[in-house]
Amino acid sequence: MTKSIKYLLLTAVIILGVVSMPNQEVFAQKKKKKTETTAAAAPAPEKKPEKKKLEDVVKGHEKFEGLFTFYQDTTSGELKMLISKEQLGNEYLYFSQIGDGVTEAGNFRGSYGENKIFKIERYFNRVEFVSQNTSYYFDPENPLSRSADANISPGIMASAKIEFDDPEKGLILIKADNLFLKETFSQIKRPSYPGESPTAFKLGNLDSEKTKVLAVRNYEKNTDLAVEYVYTNPSVLNGGSEAVTDGRNVSIKVFHSLIELPDNGYEPRFDDPRVGYFTTKVTDMTATSPTPYRDLIHRWDLRKKDPNAAVSEPVEPIVWWIENSTPHEWRETIKNAVLEWNKAFEKAGFKNAVQVKIQPDDADWDAGDIRYNVLRWTSSPNPPFGGYGPSFVNPRTGQILGADIMLEFVYHTNRVVYDKVFGEESAMDTESGNWHNGHFCTVGTNLQHNMMFGQAFLRAHGASELEMEGMKQEAMAELLMHEVGHTLGLNHNMKASQLFSPDQLADKNFINGKALTGSVMDYIAINLAPDKANQGHYFSTTVGPYDIWAIQAGYTPVNNQKELDAILALSTKPEHTFGNDADDMRSPGKAIDPRVMIGDLSNDQIAYSIHMMETSKKLMGGIKEKFSKEGQSYEELTQAFSVLMGQHATAGGVISRFIGGVYVDRAMVGQEGGTQPFTPVSLKDQKRALDALNKYMFAPNAYEIPDDLVNYLSRQRRGFDFFSGPEDPKIHQRVLNSQKNVLAHLTHPNTLQRMVDSELYGNQYNVATFMNDLTKAIFDADINGNVNSFRQNLQIEYVNMLKGMVSGPTSNRYNHLAKSAALYNLNYIKGKAGNGTGNVASRGHKEHVRLLIDNTLKEVK
Ligand SMILES: [Zn+2]
């Protein structure tokens, strides 16, 4: 894909070059003639024809001096770039960022694009822009390094004809429009994915007439160009959301930055699997080690002003600017949250490493200026997430050169962003939403759901406005600390919620002033004390012990590897436990360690999740009264219901991961405090998890939604808009979606495979027993009598899942033992369902079940 685009681009550049040549000749001839006429009229002075000077070529151009000097024709807007001899062959950094876009195109304000090294090379009368490969390392002492370029393709992004050449001054001038008005340096229009709906929103073709340079900002060490790319389409089927003014003409504003690489003696630090940093992957091609990794962690270049002091101010601190668009009442909370990280840096030997300033209202710089790290606020349509903390680095060293944090207003309001609420498919998946960057983060969404759950809880307890405000401020502080953590180089630690027991969390004196989890880089459930009088912090208000240790591992200045190893050896302390979302535990079947999970809390996640489900159920009884306001529609009540149902579903997901789960320990061989890498979850806990799922998700009375609530779940009409379907509450589908999500994990080929394999090393819950327990949970309570509507749905769904395990294309993914278990259970259900008991609906249902099973058994070969 990328290759063919590059090829097309190259072809386009060449064609343009060819076409423009005759025109230039004509122009030159005309000019010559004119000169001749003039010469004939006046007496000819004996003068050698003067060589063309740079000043002549750029006459009538505006000059932008900086790292690369640019000239812009004041009539046509044409852009020219001046390159000096010294710049040829040097490495520079290219970085792009979206100034403004549309969410459905995967480009939105502040999203970071490509970040790569390139060189400018001369080839006869042309210059080439060549992107460099940074994925491999060759020891320069090793003779193999002579063939370091073997089978590694460089990327020639563009080849431009030299317009003017001054060998004496060592200057060359090229036309730059093709570099910046096309997708030369980075791909902006996202590719379509296989299986993507043909009616999905798409950008049209890049329109070269409408695409234009908006601004050139030039500085000593970086040249920034703001470009408005316009994509046109003669007719569109899907014109996008209301944020797209005209689907046929869509603008994406991009900042391109060409940056001088810092030559500062920064010392790279290599990645260690026990602590979670973002990395640039580098493989050592001359190493003989089984792990020839030289993955560079992303971190700032912090150095002590006083290298001998135990704690010193840094030579250059990390300075954050609060954008002037930030609501005034939040600025203090934001500032304090950012500065919390200084607690971690102090343990790494730095005082005041992080500083916070406020962008003046009349600042002469834009928040998109890469020289400033800005905490930015927007209130945009269809926000992809509540917070996003990207950074850009030097891929040769891993040094972070700049960062921003994007925050969305809607996630701090009481407005549910409906398509993001649990049980309803998100309009944008993680991949297409931020398709060229791995820093995707949805902690804002998670925190908002928790905040709204907390609100329902507080309202039910008649809490004061002050108390409500305090809870929201804690949520905002946690969000800010989390996003700042990303910009310091830290990735997620979804295992950090293991820090305290449910009892400790429910003790306000114990928890006061402490972080609730080992790390703010987790996505946790809100801390709600069963006894309201003992309610402590709802969210973390300070960084956790893992955060402090991770900053030590990444930033403490060390003299040798031994000193660093001593810090890393502390990874086995329980409070330093770490597991990131590399396997994406959000999706059923992906997780293996149930402790690495989102939406959970405490070192007894099953107990805490049960507490959350019970709280949700209890609150359900009171929301009609608490969330119906005289003179208003039932919109707020409907939102509250969604939040409670969502929290219940999340808790069920957390519990499901224990079944077939395996705990992972990444301690090194012989490390103090380490255990074996894999330890299966105990039989007791697997059974406890299934019992909880049975009681709270599968049982006939699991969902006791008050009858007199459902007929009030009405959204406020807006014009002709009834959102994505008829307006009536679809309770059965909602419940079934939660149940399906859990079953998808329990019957996932990976889960069942692991149950079989882990029997070899300690798992005592074999797949046959488990499957039969699950079947009993779903059928036994009512198969001999009336089956209610929720259970009918669940039972049919489950039979269909068993069917998928033994027949059809999905069955290939299951191991033979799992298939046998599925067949056994289909027969078990068939035997039970033939009793002809119950009311007419139940009898019909049982016949349906039997027919499905009969047909399935016929298909099994
Ligand atoms: Zn995050």
Describe this entry's structure for a reader.
This protein is an alpha+beta fold. The protein has three domains: 56-260, no CATH class; 318-765, no CATH class; 766-861. The chain has 23 helices and 24 strands. Strands 1, 2, 3, 4, 5, 6, 8, 9, 10, 11, 12 and 13 form a twelve-stranded antiparallel β-sheet that branches. Strands 17, 18, 19, 20, 21 and 22 form a six-stranded mixed β-sheet that branches. Helix 21 (789-806) runs antiparallel to helix 22 (816-833). The structure holds zinc ion (ZN). Zinc ion (ZN) binds next to helix 8.
How many strand elements?
Answer: 24
The number of helical runs is 23
- Rg from Cα: 31 Å
What ligand molecules are bound, each kind once? zinc ion
Number of domains: 3
The SS-based structural class is alpha+beta
Residues in helix, %: 25-40%
Query: In this structure, how is the largest beta sheet organized?
Result: 12 strands, antiparallel
Q: Which shape, going by the Cα principal axes?
A: globular
Straight-line distance between termini: 41 Å
Low-pLDDT residue intervals, each spanning 5 or more residues: 1-41, 418-438
Organism: Shivajiella indica
GO molecular function, one term: metallopeptidase activity
Domain DUF5117: 111-305
Domain EcxA zinc-binding: 468-782
How would you summarize the topology of this molecule?
Elements: H1 2-41, H2 54-57, E1 61-64, E2 70-73, E3 79-84, E4 91-100, E5 112-123, E6 126-131, E7 136-137, E8 155-166, E9 171-175, H3 177-180, E10 205-206, E11 212-218, E12 222-232, E13 249-260, E14 279-280, E15 283-284, E16 296-297, E17 318-322, H4 328-339, H5 341-347, E18 354-358, E19 373-378, E20 387-388, E21 391-393, E22 400-408, H6 430-433, H7 443-460, H8 465-487, H9 502-505, H10 508-511, H11 545-555, H12 561-568, H13 605-620, H14 623-627, H15 635-656, E23 662-664, E24 678-680, H16 683-698, H17 707-710, H18 731-746, H19 749-758, H20 767-779, H21 789-806, H22 816-833, H23 840-859
Parallel strand pairs: 7-15, 17-18, 17-19, 19-22
Antiparallel strand pairs: 1-2, 2-3, 3-9, 4-5, 4-13, 5-6, 6-8, 8-9, 10-12, 11-12, 12-13, 14-16, 20-22, 21-22, 23-24
Helix pairs in contact: 4-8, 5-11, 7-8, 7-15, 13-15, 13-16, 15-16, 15-18, 16-20, 18-21, 20-22, 21-22, 21-23, 22-23
